[in-house]
Amino acid sequence: MGEWLDSLTGWLSANPQWLGVAIFLVACIECLAIAGIIVPGTVLLFAVAVLAGSGAFSLGETLLLGFLGGLLGDALSYTVGKHFHQNIRRLPLLRHHPEWIGSAETYFQRYGIASLLVGRFIGPLRPMLPMVAGMFDMPLPRFIAVSLVAGAGWSVAYLLPGWATGAAMRLPLPEGFWLDAGIIAGTLAVVIGLSLNSSIRDQRHGTRLVAGLSFLALAGIFLGWPYLHEFDQGVMTLVQEHRSQAIDGTVVLVTRLGDFKTQFFLGGLLTGLLLLARQWRHALFAGGALMGTALANGSLKWLFARARPEVLTDPLTSYSMPSGHSSASFAFFLVMAVLAGRGQPPRMRLTWVMLGCIPALAIALSRVYLGAHWPTDILAGALLACCVCALSLTLVQQQQTLPALPQRVWWLVLPACVALLAFFAMHALPQALLRYQY
């Protein structure tokens, strides 16, 4: 495997005109039924992404190629399942390995749409679930919608690390960058892994464990951030090296969703609507999580008084750590995700949390892109929000589990919050473009 991979990467390095085709094909094969199990696509994806990040392709081009390749693999798998239905079990490979389709079938029957979202990130299930969806005649529009969402997250999760590694190897990063990056990645892996395990197993004290792990990781960042300076400088150098005016407007639009004014009114609207609908415990959870995160963020900023990066032409006067945009956005979207997952199986609740983290992560990363915060700032903000949200949920559920919100309440809450977000984003866009210019 090693010699074959070295030969492939060597040939692509000598023939970079084929690299885009390679990214597309490898992503397609990784998501293609049966082939995705046989071919070590994850290793290949990382290898070609490293080559792309070394200067051959921009991050956007790399993600787009992987995204389109993954969509093609999904479409082909779905078509095969739709055409053959149960007769597909007679194919030679599946006849000798019935467990390949058996596990995917069980997972799909149990979790439905959620299986396509979560299973996209589980190696053995990823290439088989679209085929199983076709076998069970999942409506094509619904499958396309789920595939678009899952494919977007998958391309970022599987291609971004390799591309960033290739780009980092090309740039003169500070000494000690890779050690700091390894420590941070290892810590996050432990926190996320233990949290996922407790959530999937539906452990009684799962929320307390999540709160405790988040607090310990947050404490580690606050105590160790002076020693993580090389990591912050390295990531900032990498991001600013690839900053493009073509997407500045979009990034600014995203970052405005995390402004204090926006999040203040958004949190007040959510809590107020829950109170209006007489959902007292849900309102207590939401209000406690959002207000607690805001108060803790302000206190920690004042206590540590960390200076912002000197990237903006008009630097902000407030302190940097933790990022208010990161903590506020993660708090709001995690609260929405927790409320959406009430009364559902553990894996479905986990799916909602994963979906909630996507817009929050986009807002947090926009702060690093614009040079308004250090990477450890947004990481601290995210961990702070996770800790406070888990603590608030733990307190609310001391006597009784928080029930699911009635559907009529969602028809009240969701449109109102989306409309308010859209209003603030569009209203502030012209001023934001001037503020965050080069």
Molecular structure report:
This protein has 438 residues and is mainly alpha-helical. It has 2 domains: 2-151, no CATH class; 183-435, no CATH class. Helix content is 76%, strand content 0%. It has 20 helices and no strands. It has helices at residues 2-14, 19-30, 35-38, 41-56, 59-84, 92-96, 98-111, 113-118, 129-135, 140-170, 177-200, 206-224, 229-241, 248-256, 260-276, 280-304, 324-341, 346-369, 375-396, 407-435. Helix 15 (260-276) runs parallel beside helix 17. The longest helix has 31 residues, at 140-170. It is globular and about 60 Å long. The N and C termini lie far apart (46 Å).
Topology:
Layout lengths: L1 H13 L4 H12 L4 H4 L2 H16 L2 H26 L7 H5 L1 H14 L1 H6 L10 H7 L4 H31 L6 H24 L5 H19 L4 H13 L6 H9 L3 H17 L3 H25 L19 H18 L4 H24 L5 H22 L10 H29 L3
Helix pairs in contact: 1-4, 2-4, 2-5, 4-10, 5-9, 5-10, 11-12, 11-13, 12-19, 14-18, 14-20, 15-16, 15-17, 15-20, 16-17, 16-19, 17-18, 17-19, 18-19
